[in-house]
Structure formats: C-alpha cells, structure tokens
C-alpha cells in the first residue's frame, strides 16, 4: 500500500525532508502537499510540493487518501511546536512517517522511533535508542548506548558521547558536545557550541565552555 503523506509545517526544515524523499528514500511514499498556518504561503509551491492551506484541511485530505504525516517544522530551542504538530497528526489517526537519509549511518542495533528524522551525514551507533518525533540533524553524532527521548532535536553537528541520556523535548544546539554518561533534563536547552560536562536539570538553558546555566525555560 502506498503511503500518501502530508507535511505539517513548511519552511527550511520541510525542504530538507522533501529533498530526502526525492532521493528515493522510500519509493512507496507520495507527498500530497504541505499544510502551514501562514496564509501567505497558501496556493504556492515549495520545492514542487503545493502548500494547500492550514491544518483545518486535514479531514478533507484524509478523505482524499492521505494516511500518514511528517512534521515539517524544525525548531531552535523550543521543541513544543513540533510536539503539538506530531500530536495533531496522531489525533487524526495518521501514521507518522520516519525519514532516514541514505547518507546517514544508522547501526542495525539502534532503534529509531516513529516519525523521527535522521538527516544527511548523521551517525547513530549501536544500542542507541531514539524516541518518537526526534530530529538527528545533518552531521550530528549519537554514540553507542545513548537514549534520546521523544520530541528531542539534536541540531546540526552536535556530538553526543556514549551513554548520554536526553530528556523529552530537549534541544541540543548546533555543534554542542556532551560528555559520556551525562543526563540532559526534560525540556532543557544546550546552547550552540556548548561543552557539557555536568548533568543538566529539567527546563534549564546552559551555554558556554564548559556549559553553565543561563536561565530557566518558561
């Protein structure tokens, strides 16, 4: 059965996903269109895919055969909008599509959760556990025995050493480095380029080398 897919959220990240699918990651997927809340995008095409309207169109699209979704929204710091879109797709009983770029390296002993996105040049090593709706962005490394919870964004070029645990909805910024066996709390934010050598509590932003608390997320 062919997957007929809608992208929830347009923009730069959606473009990366469209490119992934155009590289024949899955020949069984048809991209039906994009839904975005910005009315200025409606009626236009984005990399050849039409922007159909807002999320209110989901029922109509399901009647036309759409049966799965991709979260096309990226995010820097706050992962909650991605989580909301993921839960929206599930609430319409659509299946979340997992996207794995052919130029990523994923161990056969790693587990990738539904709706997660593994982008070009990223590496996921043995016994890593990746939750639902996770982005492992371009060039990021998730080492052996890491545990990445749902809705996390591991940004471009970030490096997680072995046995790191990342809590639900956390964001690890571009180029950040996390030492082995560190725990990153739920909803925490690791600033771009930070070097994390101590555990990070829930909902705390840390920055710098070594990383130190900056503020609490609201």
Features of the shown structure:
6-stranded mixed sheet, 32% strand, Rossmann fold, UDP N-Acetylglucosamine Acyltransferase, domain 1, alpha/beta, globular, 3 helices, 8-stranded mixed sheet, 2 domains, 218 residues
Secondary-structure map with pairings?
Elements: E1 3-8, H1 12-22, E2 29-35, E3 45-46, E4 49-53, H2 58-63, E5 68-71, H3 80-91, E6 95-96, E7 99-100, E8 105-106, E9 111-112, E10 117-118, E11 123-124, E12 129-130, E13 135-136, E14 141-142, E15 147-148, E16 153-154, E17 159-160, E18 165-166, E19 171-172, E20 177-178, E21 183-184, E22 189-190, E23 195-196, E24 204-207, E25 212-216
Parallel strand pairs: 1-2, 1-5, 2-4, 5-6, 7-10, 8-11, 9-12, 10-13, 11-14, 12-15, 13-16, 14-17, 15-18, 16-19, 17-20, 18-21, 19-22, 20-23, 22-24
Antiparallel strand pairs: 3-4, 24-25
Principal-axis shape = globular
Strand residues, percent: 25-35%
H/E topology pattern: EHEEEHEHEEEEEEEEEEEEEEEEEEEE
Structural class: alpha/beta
Helix percentage range? 10-25%
What value does the average pLDDT take? 94
The CATH class of the largest domain is identified as Mainly Beta
CATH homologous superfamily descriptor of the largest domain: Hexapeptide repeat proteins
Strand arrangement, largest sheet?
7-10-13-16-19-22-24-25
Major sheet: size, sense and barrel closure? 8 strands, mixed
